[in-house]
Design brief:
Radius of gyration: 20 Å
Structural class: alpha+beta
Distance between the termini: 44 Å
Order of helices and strands: EEHHHH
Shape: elongated
Number of strands: 2
Largest sheet: 2 strands, antiparallel
Helix content: 40-55%
Protein backbone atom coordinates (compact mmCIF):
# COMPACT_ATOMS: atom_id res chain seq x y z
CA UNK A 1 0.00 0.00 0.00
CA UNK A 2 1.46 3.34 -1.02
CA UNK A 3 0.57 6.51 0.85
CA UNK A 4 1.89 10.05 0.75
CA UNK A 5 1.70 12.54 3.57
CA UNK A 6 1.18 16.02 2.16
CA UNK A 7 1.25 19.37 3.95
CA UNK A 8 -1.20 21.90 2.58
CA UNK A 9 -1.50 25.56 3.51
CA UNK A 10 -4.78 27.41 3.00
CA UNK A 11 -5.22 31.07 2.01
CA UNK A 12 -5.00 32.16 5.65
CA UNK A 13 -1.65 30.40 6.17
CA UNK A 14 -3.05 27.55 8.26
CA UNK A 15 -1.19 24.31 7.52
CA UNK A 16 -2.85 20.89 7.63
CA UNK A 17 -1.54 17.42 6.89
CA UNK A 18 -3.34 15.03 4.56
CA UNK A 19 -2.85 11.33 3.83
CA UNK A 20 -3.14 10.53 0.14
CA UNK A 21 -3.64 6.86 -0.73
CA UNK A 22 -1.96 5.48 -3.84
CA UNK A 23 -3.88 4.33 -6.89
CA UNK A 24 -3.87 0.65 -5.92
CA UNK A 25 -5.62 0.82 -2.57
CA UNK A 26 -7.84 3.35 -0.87
CA UNK A 27 -8.30 1.39 2.35
CA UNK A 28 -6.07 -0.34 4.87
CA UNK A 29 -5.28 -3.94 3.94
CA UNK A 30 -6.13 -5.60 7.29
CA UNK A 31 -8.36 -5.09 10.32
CA UNK A 32 -6.94 -3.60 13.54
CA UNK A 33 -4.59 -5.87 15.48
CA UNK A 34 -5.89 -7.40 18.68
CA UNK A 35 -2.41 -8.15 20.04
CA UNK A 36 -0.17 -5.25 21.06
CA UNK A 37 3.02 -7.28 20.60
CA UNK A 38 2.41 -7.38 16.85
CA UNK A 39 3.55 -3.75 16.65
CA UNK A 40 7.31 -3.43 17.27
CA UNK A 41 7.07 0.19 18.37
CA UNK A 42 5.03 -0.85 21.43
CA UNK A 43 7.57 -3.50 22.36
CA UNK A 44 10.50 -1.08 22.06
CA UNK A 45 8.75 1.40 24.32
CA UNK A 46 8.50 -1.28 27.02
CA UNK A 47 12.27 -1.69 27.15
CA UNK A 48 12.94 0.61 30.09
CA UNK A 49 16.47 1.18 31.38
CA UNK A 50 15.75 -1.23 34.23
CA UNK A 51 14.73 -4.00 31.83
CA UNK A 52 17.67 -3.27 29.51
CA UNK A 53 20.14 -3.56 32.40
CA UNK A 54 18.45 -6.80 33.49
CA UNK A 55 18.81 -8.16 29.94
CA UNK A 56 22.50 -7.18 29.82
CA UNK A 57 23.26 -8.83 33.17
CA UNK A 58 21.41 -11.98 32.15
CA UNK A 59 23.29 -12.05 28.84
CA UNK A 60 26.68 -11.63 30.52
CA UNK A 61 25.96 -14.53 32.86
CA UNK A 62 25.07 -16.83 29.96
CA UNK A 63 21.30 -16.90 30.31
CA UNK A 64 19.55 -17.49 26.99
CA UNK A 65 17.24 -14.82 25.59
CA UNK A 66 14.14 -17.01 25.83
CA UNK A 67 14.91 -17.70 29.50
CA UNK A 68 15.30 -13.97 30.13
CA UNK A 69 11.98 -13.36 28.42
CA UNK A 70 10.31 -16.08 30.49
CA UNK A 71 11.64 -14.48 33.69
CA UNK A 72 10.34 -11.06 32.63
CA UNK A 73 6.92 -12.49 31.81
CA UNK A 74 6.68 -14.50 35.04
CA UNK A 75 7.24 -11.49 37.30
CA UNK A 76 3.67 -10.36 36.66
CA UNK A 77 4.50 -7.17 34.78
CA UNK A 78 2.36 -8.21 31.80
CA UNK A 79 5.10 -7.43 29.31
CA UNK A 80 4.43 -7.66 25.58
CA UNK A 81 8.08 -8.17 24.69
CA UNK A 82 9.10 -10.82 22.19
CA UNK A 83 12.28 -12.89 22.08
CA UNK A 84 13.40 -10.72 19.15
CA UNK A 85 13.23 -7.65 21.43
CA UNK A 86 15.55 -9.37 23.91
CA UNK A 87 17.98 -10.33 21.12
CA UNK A 88 17.94 -6.75 19.83
CA UNK A 89 18.57 -5.29 23.29
CA UNK A 90 21.48 -7.70 23.80
CA UNK A 91 22.92 -6.80 20.40
CA UNK A 92 22.61 -3.06 21.08
CA UNK A 93 24.40 -3.47 24.40
CA UNK A 94 27.20 -5.45 22.75
CA UNK A 95 27.65 -2.84 20.02
CA UNK A 96 27.64 -0.04 22.60
CA UNK A 97 30.30 -1.76 24.68
CA UNK A 98 32.50 -2.34 21.60
CA UNK A 99 32.20 1.25 20.42
CA UNK A 100 33.30 2.63 23.78
CA UNK A 101 36.54 0.65 24.07
Amino acid sequence: MKIDIVRRTDDEGVATWHIIHGPISTTHNHPPSKEVSSHPVHCRSELSDKIRSHVVVQSQTGVRAVQTLAALRSDGSGTNLLARDIYNARHSATISSLCCL
